[in-house]
């Protein structure tokens, strides 16, 4: 039995791709990449339903580098989709060669995503990864140049498809054919496409060029305020209060209300000493976002450990 590595997001496209290849008696190993900006939760659920053993690769640090300095530009947000997908392909290629898989496949659909799934981008990624005509895209294969796997008869081209564009009609019809009852939502999940988060991340890169993954993640955990090069994060709910605690660094300060209900506030000085006036400003934010303050004494705990 031939075996293939399949880039797998857990969305409908990647599920259908797995089904199409399985129909040709090919053993599938799905692979998903996680970073500071997206996870593999959907991929895990979908792989489990399909009875497949998912490989999860954490490439967070390498991914952060290309988010900072993309070679092939960004989308509407700060998302470097072409660079990101190229990095995934290069990492998958390493596993492909090391573990001797027969070929590499993806669930990409020609024209579905304007930045990374147009004909030019697909060719560019193949060329940069030194995999020209060596990435099989079963959903759109008949609209693309024939791969070496099809030429060698490893995969039968006549059993592949010619889907293109953003419409999901063909995929939904195929899902019905394969008796897929629960259709997962489109698998994007990359916070880099969110315009509000993109603004926050660009500001972080500008103020703190050597920021790390924890700094990028803390931007999603509350209201964000800058006092010079000091970052103040004000939690919006109980969940964020707990998450802020988990992302606290050694020199961070945390403020918590003791005798009233209010948000947890984190101050990050990025290895510089946090001055008293910054703490006072953070206290002001805490009080402003507290719904009901005590009439007499206000007690706030300051944590630095």
UniProtKB/TrEMBL annotation:
Residues 3-139 form the Thil AANH domain. InterPro entries: NFACT-R_2, Rossmann-like_a/b/a_fold, ThiI_AANH. Residues 231-304 form the NFACT protein RNA binding domain. PANTHER family: THIL AANH DOMAIN-CONTAINING PROTEIN, TRNA 5-METHYLAMINOMETHYL-2-THIOURIDYLATE -METHYLTRANSFERASE. This is tRNA 4-thiouridine(8) synthase ThiI. Keywords: ATP-binding, Nucleotide-binding. GO terms for molecular function: ATP binding; CCA tRNA nucleotidyltransferase activity. Pfam families: NFACT-R_2, ThiI. The keyword ATP-binding applies. The keyword Nucleotide-binding applies.
